């Protein structure tokens, strides 16, 4: 089994007027199915109302994240699945529910964490 990160940036989620409630309902239904199947690890979204800070190795704190990196926002789900094919199938279900494309990556899980 491998852990897969399924995610999307905030800008990708463009919900037509009047569909936000249905998107929420559909997305939560897929997550409940993942939980029932025993493959759900965790998920959520970046709280974009709280700006990031960058903590250096010496402990100093600076406003903002890495200036050279793309902004990190949006939502994500981590699932524990037996194959990439199954991960693609779950990502497709999430994409359909959220009405936006999803990126799929293998999540480098550290079993000692």
UniProtKB/TrEMBL annotation:
Alphabetized InterPro entries for the sequence: Dimeric_a/b-barrel (IPR011008)
SUPFAM superfamilies: Dimeric alpha+beta barrel (SSF54909)
Superkingdom to which the source organism belongs: Bacteria
Name this protein carries in UniProt: Transcription initiation protein
Organism (species): Geothrix oryzae
